[in-house]
Design goal:
Layout: E1 2-3, H1 10-16, E2 26-32, H2 38-46, H3 48-55, E3 62-68, H4 71-79, E4 85-88, H5 90-100, E5 107-115, E6 119-122, E7 139-141, H6 148-161, E8 173-175, H7 178-186, E9 194-196, H8 201-206, E10 212-216, H9 217-221, E11 225-232, H10 233-238, H11 240-259, H12 261-272, H13 278-285, E12 291-292, H14 299-309
Parallel strand pairs: 1-3, 2-3, 7-8, 7-9
Antiparallel strand pairs: 4-11, 5-11, 5-12, 6-9, 6-10
Helix pairs in contact: 1-4, 2-11, 2-12, 3-11, 11-12, 12-13
Length: about 325
């Protein structure tokens, strides 16, 4: 098993993978900064893909992991065949499903990983709701316009000011990784006075007394998947046994996380070298609005909004249109 933890670029990955693929079956995972990928932590540590692949008759599989700062570079890497399975929020999947549907580059969802809210936090005491935001405020998001945080802010803005004004606050957003956004928000000298972030960083921010929450994404879009995994139809078609091993590994990892959330939290701390207390991380993993599940939730709310706003040219008729058939029988939305 090969592991890489870095701020990756498609150019670095393309150079590393310029030679022909090895004869040994290979699967390359990409994830982002957050606590939304606990199944991936478990899969990596317990080598679950390798385990299930061996049981299916693939005794040797090369598995690698890489971490990205946001969906743009990660999806570019997917399209360039530098990675095979990527992960992130609903808008990332919607964007590339719509862009590639019916083409040789077709991208579809593999599975959900978790449902949990994103919180827009601020240290600005004058801000009580997003209606109070002004030109002097700056909002850190993982990626401008395409991250789940950026699109949720657009959805909230449309509800408040009308659909025609959904981009009203786009100019206030700045792309920044959640760890850096947290440092900026908690530092009084930074221009960043708001951060639309991810767990556990949003909980870490709220430990400071002068930080409060302006917006909970569940209040905007209803309960929704926070993290999903997706990949190319070609990879699934060309690697049927490896893909089956992937699905079995995801299910086992999900069961493991739900059976012992404290142990899963400890794995996340180990992998990220975080200094956060285990009790705090465990409380986040076990939060009342947190659900570790493969069932996609709330995807159509985002897909329909993005289509209405013109962000994507086509809209799915149902959530199943965006996902491979292995999860189509789940009670998703």
């Amino acid at each position: 098993m090969k592991r890489r933890t870095l701020l990756a670029t498609p150019f670095v990955l393309a150079a590393a993978n310029g030679a022909a693929r090895a004869a040994v079956p290979e699967i390359r995972f990409a994830r982002q900064f957050s606590m939304g990928y606990l199944q991936f932590n478990v899969m990596e540590h317990q080598q679950l893909v390798e385990k299930h692949a061996a049981a299916l008759g693939l005794p040797e599989v090369k598995v690698s992991w890489v971490t990205f700062n946001g969906p743009d570079a990660m999806n570019t890497a997917l399209l360039s065949d530098s990675v095979d399975v990527v992960s992130g929020g609903i808008p990332g999947l919607v964007t590339f499903w719509a862009r590639t549907a019916g083409t040789s580059q077709e991208v579809r969802g593999i599975s959900a990983l978790s449902s949990q809210p994103c919180l827009l936090n601020t240290r600005n005491a004058k801000l009580k709701t997003i209606a109070d935001l002004s030109a002097s405020d700056r909002i850190a998001v993982p990626s401008i316009k395409v991250s789940i945080q950026a699109v949720t802010l657009q959805m909230a803005t449309a509800k408040l000011f009308g659909k025609a004004n959904y981009t009203k606050y786009d100019d206030l957003t700045i792309a920044m990784s959640p760890p850096d956004a947290t440092i900026a928000l908690l530092g009084a000298s930074s221009e960043i006075d708001c951060a639309f972030s991810v767990p556990p960083y949003q909980a870490q921010q709220l430990q400071k007394p002068d930080v409060h929450t302006l917006l909970n994404s569940f209040d905007v879009a209803g309960p929704h998947s926070f993290t999903l995994a997706w990949g190319k139809a070609k990879f699934r078609h060309d690697n049927p046994l490896l893909y089956k091993a992937l699905m079995l590994a995801l299910q086992e990892a999900t069961d493991i996380v739900n059976a012992d959330k404290r142990a899963a939290a400890a794995l996340w701390l180990e992998d990220t070298h975080s200094k956060l207390p285990l009790d705090l991380v465990t409380s986040i993993v076990s939060g009342p609005q947190v659900n570790w599940t493969m069932t996609p939730q709330g995807t159509m709310n985002y897909a329909n909004f993005m289509h209405d706003a013109g962000s994507v040219k086509i809209a799915p008729k149902s959530w199943q249109d965006m996902f491979f058939p292995e999860v189509a029988g789940l009670a998703g939305s």
